[in-house]
Amino acid sequence: xxxxxxxxxxxxxxxxxxDPHDERGMTTTEVAVITFLxxxxxxxVLGVIYNAAKxxxxxxxxxxxx
Length: 66
Description:
Helix content is 65%, strand content 0%.
């Protein structure tokens, strides 16, 4: 049984004391900081994937002719 997403959202808002109908929203600075952090994490993940793929490619043995 999957719980209702609206119920989960309402529960989390109630536990954190957030009014879901508040008009405040995020400021431009908050959006810029979150975007910067997400881009930074994406660069790190891509670096890890690239290094893993390069390491696996370097470990492929050279085919030998019969």
